């Protein structure tokens, strides 16, 4: 509820201008919102790397290994084992790739164990003549499927799998009675098996980490800029409100100093109390206290008591964190009604996680309303205002719901 609903009837006592611009609450650096952007950037980078790894593994398996296997199938020691192992790895790799892209990868170590069993079987079934040819497809292909199996884990796991693969190959070479040329070929093949998959695996991890770090730095910079803009806008709005409130108070003091207003006049007293209450609440807004709304209401209640109005303040529950704009709309209408109260007043604040209700009860008296809207229910954005009078009491209530 904005302050214009509490505008005094006196033509020179201008109401506070309604503030329709809400100042965003600065985010904590480690809040979930602040961490969402770096995580999203890292996820996008990691997804791109996953797509590349899956594409390399399946393309290599189909475009390079399959033609070599089909052309040399008659020269294998056990052709059915080599071809069957190729089909098994193709199906398993496709499933593992799809699951990896969906973010729910297969269990790594059972998958890695299956690949190592296939590795040993193909080396045994390829035979001596195909040991170092492209037809022995596990040399060039299996390392990429190891990458899919342990994606997202430490590189030590991938190195362990590739080392086991190299050990299986070494056993196969030794079984066939190697010569120096076979040992040289073995070293070259092991180097190729290690270098490319490890480079892709480590490179993707480094890229994801750098993307996350740069996104975090950028998000922190934007958060700082947003907080600075919010603080500057809040300061400007506060200065504007202070100028308006001070102007209203200055007019009252000017009338008193110039003899144009009688200090014994109830209307003049009400104008003074309303101006003082608004100034006091405006000052209370910037206080660093656990419950800002209660603090602002207590400031208005203290001022009423100092002006001789007995007032009871009852609080039930603890208000949730509320923006300044919401606190203003909850407090302003009741501040105006409190300035017009006579005899006694009872101010009640009932708070929950999703709702805050502030009620004010004062004795009714004859005469038209000098503050506030006509009786009934009024909505002002997120805050609902209700005002009733029955000849005995006046009841005003503001209610905020999440």
From TrEMBL:
It comes from the Bacteria. The chain crosses the membrane at residues 51-70, 76-101, 108-126, 132-151, 158-177, 189-211. Keywords: Membrane, Transmembrane, Transmembrane helix. The keyword Transmembrane helix applies. Residues 1-35, 363-384 are annotated as: Disordered. This is Histidine kinase. It comes from Micromonospora saelicesensis.
